[in-house]
């Protein structure tokens, strides 16, 4: 029967679509990268999601985040993403957790119920803990390395963390995982040399912070505030989504030609 996933089914087969619809994917970080991961996965037929992010849409997100519009500024990103996803696939089951994932609250997440984990968070400590939790519960995970301060989306690659080069964040993660005895981790990373952001105090969050009063996390807390564009984090997010779909359906039979 014709349905919204028919064009996808022509390529990957009915069994794969059914596998995606029964799969539960946890996306940690619903920003420039994570938003496009969710967008592509819901359009591919993934039926169950956990969206984890405690951030709200900011005016400065409008240049690159798929959930950011003038209408959604000030709303929780995870809530906006859920509403958008349900407009695409109303039968999806979507759980929202408005919090930042930290080593301190890692035990509050049901990793043993996830079929796949997507790491699209910013902090090294959270990334490392996600990898350790996924390994402990034998759940596949893919992590996004640095997407900020980049201008060339064509230089993103999918590789094992130990095969990466050029990316400063990947270098740090690689070193820390080696200390923890982790032998492999699928990542999306860029081989582009990062661009140094222009120092313009007239548009800097350092001097013109627009985070709402009482915000739990502000841009000014970050050591560096990276620049970004619409056509870079979106590429990383779409690459990640493609890997998730491929991994979830790799043991299914495609339609005979």
Q: Can you walk through the features of this model?
A:
It is a single chain. The protein is 32% helix and 13% strand. The protein is an alpha/beta fold and 257 residues long. Strands 3-2-1-4-5-7-6 form a seven-stranded mixed sheet, with helices on both faces. The longest helix has 16 residues, at 233-248. The chain is globular, with a radius of gyration of 18 Å.
Main structural class: alpha/beta
Uncertain residue segments: none
Strand content of the residues, in percent? 5-15%
- Number of strand elements: 7
Radius of gyration from the alpha-carbon trace, in angstroms: 18 Å
Percent helix, as a range, is 25-40%
Q: Which CATH first-tier class would you pick?
A: Alpha Beta
Q: Number of folding domains?
A: 1
Element string (H = helix, E = strand) = HHEHEHEEHEEHEH
Spatial gap, N to C terminus = 19 Å
Ordered list of secondary-structure elements with their pairings:
Blueprint: H1 6-12, H2 14-21, E1 24-28, H3 32-44, E2 48-52, H4 77-88, E3 93-97, E4 116-119, H5 124-136, E5 141-144, E6 156-160, H6 168-179, E7 186-190, H7 233-248
Parallel strand pairs: 1-2, 1-4, 2-3, 4-5, 5-7
Antiparallel strand pairs: 6-7
Features:
7 helices; alpha/beta; globular; Rossmann fold; 257 residues
Short description:
The chain is of the alpha/beta class and 257 residues long. It contains seven helices and seven strands, in the order H-H-E-H-E-H-E-E-H-E-E-H-E-H.
């Amino acid at each position: 029967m014709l349905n919204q996933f028919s064009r996808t089914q022509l390529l990957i087969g009915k069994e794969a679509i059914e596998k995606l619809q029964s799969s539960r994917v946890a996306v940690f970080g619903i920003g420039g990268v994570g938003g496009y991961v969710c967008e592509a996965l819901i359009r591919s037929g993934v039926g169950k999601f956990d969206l984890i992010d405690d951030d709200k849409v900011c005016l400065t997100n409008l240049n690159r985040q798929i959930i950011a519009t003038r209408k959604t500024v000030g709303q929780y990103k995870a809530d906006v993403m859920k509403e958008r996803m349900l407009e695409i696939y109303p039968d999806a089951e979507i759980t929202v957790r408005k919090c930042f994932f930290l080593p301190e609250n890692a035990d509050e997440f049901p990793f043993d119920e996830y079929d796949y984990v997507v790491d699209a968070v910013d902090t090294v400590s959270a990334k490392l803990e996600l990898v350790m939790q996924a390994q402990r519960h034998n759940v596949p995970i893919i992590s996004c390395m640095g997407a900020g301060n980049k201008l060339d989306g064509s230089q993103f690659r999918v590789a094992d963390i130990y095969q990466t080069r050029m990316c400063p964040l990947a270098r740090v993660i690689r070193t820390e995982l080696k200390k923890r005895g982790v032998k492999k981790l699928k990542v999306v990373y860029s081989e582009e040399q990062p661009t140094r952001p222009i120092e313009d105090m007239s548009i800097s969050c350092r001097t013109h912070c627009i985070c709402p009063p009482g915000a739990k996390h502000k841009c000014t807390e970050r050591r560096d505030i990276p620049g970004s564009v619409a056509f870079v984090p979106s590429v990383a997010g779409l690459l990640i989504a493609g890997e998730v779909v491929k991994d979830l359906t790799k043991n299914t039979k495609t339609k005979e030609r």
